[in-house]
Design a protein that fits this description.
With 430 residues, the chain is α/β, with parallel strands linked by helices. The protein is 39% helix and 22% strand. It is elongated, with a radius of gyration of 23 Å. The structure holds zinc ion (ZN).
């Protein structure tokens, strides 16, 4: 029999055995305990008008359809978390298509709407996006951003090794060089998950007190706000009694910030990124240093200006950006407010900059545009944006989020087991 190799790989047989009493306490024999946790989770989110996204395996939905329907009726967005809780990074394209389409039939049978997919263990491979695209999903969320909020030097050897191992199992990308921002990849919106999540903090770092979790999550919120990123909170419902105060602190803090933090579920985030992708600027040269700008976008679009003069009404927004509400306006700027790139500039980075809302044009004359990037200006995402943000170049930009929000927070959780029996069965369900 093929066992769930990931569980053993990730934990080791001895550790897995040691965790049995903890697991037994967290789950119950019946679904009462977890049902209460899940509703407790939704209660906290709803206090702040935040609707959570929960990813559940199809086999669990089939076992507990009433539980899922009741949560759906309270506004929870459900997503597919696999047919069973197995490691999708080991599946072929054919197996992906087979698993996911069978899972979709289960969701349809129980009349649970879905537009998103998240891999069990957050482990995907190149077939995952291809499969969900073929099957008509609009978002995927297995990409992991590890926030730079933990000082490995301050950790003891065991937690340090355990955390490092987790980052490698998740193929996590560091926030030092990558933004935690959605990306539209051939019709699918990839929305990164934020780490450390509760599992990393409690099981790997061994920090099992609410104050520590709150501190770490608030520092992720702070960084995500400063960078305008999304903080995709990921938590496991079985720990809700313990995590609720941390979650409440994050949502409380987020709802007090100005410019605002957009609290949205992953479906809303993906929907917005689809809409945003259709937005365009038209830059018309009027005469020396004057340009007419036409904005083709819906009223929710956040249009930003930097180092630009205009007689139209603008409001101070964040850092050195202003926000403009008019959709036709004239500006004065020393150069065309676009980022010019050389012929051999990395196409993936050019696509990244377009996705970040800048006007990017391939130009022959570096002097013709506000900012020029040559092939060797290709660095990592964060350094490149830092360079643009720090320049005096006049630029226009569609911001990442709607209605002038600075950053976003999504509350998400994965449902891997409801009862102790489900947890035990996971070892054999591959
Ligand atoms: Zn899971």
């Amino acid at each position: 029999m093929k066992l769930a190799s990931f569980l053993l790989k990730s934990r080791g047989p001895v550790n897995l055995a040691k965790r049995i009493p903890t697991i037994a306490r967290r789950f119950g024999i019946t679904n009462t305990k977890i049902d209460r946790c899940l509703h407790g989770f939704v209660d906290v989110a709803l206090e702040f008008d935040a609707k959570p996204t929960l990813a559940i395996t199809a086999n669990l939905l089939d076992r507990y359809p009433g539980l899922v329907q009741r949560l759906r009726n309270r506004g929870v967005e459900f997503a597919i978390h696999g047919l069973v809780h197995t490691d999708y990074s080991e599946l072929s394209l054919g197996e992906h298509l087979d698993h996911i389409s069978r899972a979709m039939r289960v969701f349809d049978r129980h009349e649970i709407d879905f537009v998103g997919f998240r891999c069990p263990y957050l482990r995907s491979n190149s077939y995952t996006l291809e499969a969900v695209r073929k099957l008509g999903f609009i978002w995927e969320s297995s990409d992991v951003i590890a926030w730079d909020v933990i000082d490995p030097g301050a950790l003891d050897i065991n937690p340090r090794i355990a955390y490092k191992k987790l980052l490698s199992l998740y193929s996590a990308r560091s926030s030092i060089t990558n933004f935690s921002a959605p990306k539209l990849l051939n019709g699918i919106v990839e929305i990164p998950v934020s780490i450390p999540d509760d599992e990393a903090i409690i099981d790997r770092l061994g920090l099992d007190n609410t104050a520590e979790i709150t501190r770490l999550w608030l520092s992720i919120l702070d960084s995500s706000y400063r960078r305008g990123d999304i903080f995709t909170v990921q938590l496991h419902h079985e720990r809700v009694p313990f995590l609720a105060p941390a979650l409440r602190s994050v949502l409380q803090e987020a709802s007090m910030l100005s410019p605002s933090v957009w609290l949205a579920n992953l479906g809303e985030i993906a929907d917005w990124y689809m809409r945003r992708d259709t937005f365009r600027f038209e830059v018309i040269d009027v005469d020396q240093g004057r340009y007419d700008i036409k904005v083709h976008a819906d009223p929710d679009a956040t249009v930003l200006l930097k180092n630009i003069d205009t007689h139209h009404l603008i409001d101070k927004w964040y850092s050195n950006y202003q926000v403009i509400r008019d959709r036709r306006f004239t500006i004065s700027a020393a150069k065309r407010p676009v980022i010019g790139i050389s012929k051999n500039f990395n196409p993936a980075m050019a696509e990244f900059l377009r996705g970040e809302g800048f006007i990017v044009e391939q130009v022959d004359n570096p002097e013709s545009c506000a900012l020029y990037l040559a092939a060797d200006d290709d660095t990592d995402e964060v350094s490149l944006i830092d360079r643009i943000e720090g320049s005096v170049a006049p630029l226009l930009r569609f911001w990442r989020w709607p209605r002038s929000a600075r950053s976003a927070v999504s509350i998400t959780g994965d449902i891997d087991s409801i009862t102790l029996l489900d947890f035990a069965r996971r070892i054999f369900e591959v």
